[in-house]
Amino acid sequence: MAVMAVMAAWAAVLMTYGVSFAKDSETGSDDVLPLDMAPNSVDDMYDGCKENMFEVQTEYLQDEKNKDMIFKNAWDEAEQHNRKLYGSNELKKEEIIAIYVYTLSGDELYADFNNAVRSQKSEYKTTFGYYALHFYLTSALQKLDEEQKAKGRECLTSYRGVDKKFSQDVSGKEFRFGSFTSSSAGYKIAIAFGRKSCFKIETCYGADISLYSKFPDEKEVLIPPYEVFKVIKIEKRSEEKSLPCEVVYEVQSTRKTLSNMNCALYTHIYMYIYIGVGVCLFVCVCLACYCIFFNKSSTCHLRSINFELFQITHTDSDMLIQNEMV
């Protein structure tokens, strides 16, 4: 009777947490998914360019809201909540909203965002649709992780159950989840019930987001796509009948990160700025050379400090040439 009571209790727990922890795409699929380094992940951690990114996010956020009404509605709804937290801690308003959007999102936005983060590395500099949400979520997790470490909590233990099958020949191998990955600090994986794959996770870069979540009782720990883990143990129910899942993976953070796309967006944006400045300087030099060598009676001057207009006055022909620099 005691065993039945425990199993019933954990069935209820998994029904409560299963939607948020197993709502990635292909739920219930029999396809075997890899546990690898997620080579196509949008894993930008903005190390060294975060402050510069804050200066350009306003444009991206508005543009993405204009293009995606589901995202716009989620962001606008999230903006009305957690107002009491704005300015009360280290997180910026947009970071608080981003966490709420992530936990608020229905299956369509949640799945689309996570699939994009997991697979759109090649589109990151061009057509990726979630620059603002990705940036603010990443920044929020990093700040919360710093707060945890300042309180002496270097790593967190969390648990994740999903209706998917993963590679089983991965013992001792390193991998990344490759997207923002939901887990919970609120239940023990050892007696989880009724899932194909379960994970016991030690994360050293994930953070407890329950204070900012739409569902604070879930005690959600969100793991960033760039954290590297190592599989230290795999247990199978076919070999151990008492296991609640077909396969139980125990994984530990290597305390390393891998960000193949670090500051890639920042570099891409500012490359065009540098090219523009270079073109301006080139035009200045060309105009100066023209004045000096071909028209000595001319006077050439920079009309505005922000390169809006260049003017050459020709005394002989009274000709005016204006070049507008964008």
TrEMBL record:
GO terms for molecular function: NAD+ poly-ADP-ribosyltransferase activity; NAD+-protein-arginine ADP-ribosyltransferase activity; nucleotidyltransferase activity. PROSITE patterns: TR_MART (PS51996). This is NAD(P)(+)--arginine ADP-ribosyltransferase. Residues 1-22 form the signal peptide. Belongs to the Arg-specific ADP-ribosyltransferase family. The chain crosses the membrane at residues 269-293. SUPFAM superfamilies: ADP-ribosylation (SSF56399). InterPro entries: ADP-ribosyltransferase_ARG, ART. Its EC number is 2.4.2.31. It comes from Larimichthys crocea (Large yellow croaker). It is an enzyme of class 2 (transferase). Gene3D superfamilies: Toxin ADP-ribosyltransferase, Chain A, domain 1 (3.90.176.10). Keywords: Disulfide bond, Glycosyltransferase, Membrane, NAD, NADP, Nucleotidyltransferase, Signal, Transferase, Transmembrane, Transmembrane helix. It holds the Pfam family ART. It catalyses: L-arginyl-[protein] + NAD(+) = N(omega)-(ADP-D-ribosyl)-L-arginyl-[protein] + nicotinamide + H(+).
